[in-house]
Amino acid sequence: MTRQSPASEDAPDAEFPAAVEAIRTRRSGHNFDPDGDVSEETLREIVRDATFAPSAFNLQPWEFVAVRDDERLDTLVDLAFGQDHLRDAGTGVVVVGHTESERNAERVYTEWAEAGRITEDDAAERIAQAEADDPDREFAIRNASLAAENFLLSAHARGLKATPMTGFDFDGVADFLDLPDDQIPVVLIALGESGGDEPERLPRRSVDDVLHIDDY
Ligand SMILES: Cc1cc2nc3c(=O)[nH]c(=O)nc-3n(C[C@H](O)[C@H](O)[C@H](O)COP(=O)(O)O)c2cc1C
């Protein structure tokens, strides 16, 4: 298999190349350093990594709302049913998904056409279809979840702790963040500096158990 070199602006961060190691050592933690601080610059780099996730037709139907203000974070902790590790983490990132592909359709399908990957007629048809499509929560959840996993791995590879959470009041968080009607919170990520080790990881189901070749 040949590996394509990424364009220079997309080059992987040379300091953190060990993707497989990151996958295998990533943890969801509760032990955050309450005095730690993730800089906005680092947050931006992690979000940048998240945006390299695959998405249907490259529509990138996601947003990242980072709550860092202490009072706002307290409210988010309440909305997460009092999960205190979020407060210790210092940053709560709500990964938001678009339920309508229409939002980015014009820009993205125009890019496909400009790159010569589809015709202009195809692009126009796809844009019209996106405008006609019903809202689709699965579209939002699938795409935003992939971006969320990239986020977790990037944070971990950078020596930070990032814990995905769905134990929160979804409608309450949507109101609190003032999300547009066509967008939903998909996962909340507690992001912060580690406060120490986590309990040993619980076992994973084996490959023999989960892998089915050609049929279930
Ligand atoms: C969809 C989903 C929801 C989760 N919700 C929470 C949560 O509300 N609070 C929390 O502390 N951890 C939450 N977790 C983290 C899991 O408990 C954790 O991923 C699992 O125990 C495996 O541990 P590991 O990620 O350290 O390997 C969630 C994980 C996923 C994927």
Write the layout of secondary structure elements.
Elements: H1 19-25, H2 40-50, E1 62-67, H3 70-79, H4 85-89, E2 91-98, H5 102-114, H6 120-132, H7 137-157, E3 161-165, H8 170-177, E4 183-192, H9 207-210
Bound molecules: flavin mononucleotide.
Family: Belongs to the nitroreductase family.
Domain Nitroreductase: 23-192
InterPro entries: Nitroreductase, Nitroreductase-like
What does this structure look like?
The protein is an alpha+beta fold and 216 residues long. It folds into two domains: 32-44 and 52-100 and 135-195, NADH Oxidase (3-Layer(aba) Sandwich); 101-134, no CATH class. The chain contains nine helices and four strands. The chain has helices spanning 19-25, 40-50, 70-79, 85-89, 102-114, 120-132, 137-157, 170-177, 207-210, and strands at 62-67, 91-98, 161-165, 183-192. A four-stranded antiparallel beta sheet has the order 1-2-4-3, with helices on both faces. Helix 2 (40-50) crosses helix 7 (137-157) and helix 5 packs antiparallel against helix 6. The radius of gyration is 19 Å and the shape is globular. The protein binds flavin mononucleotide (FMN).
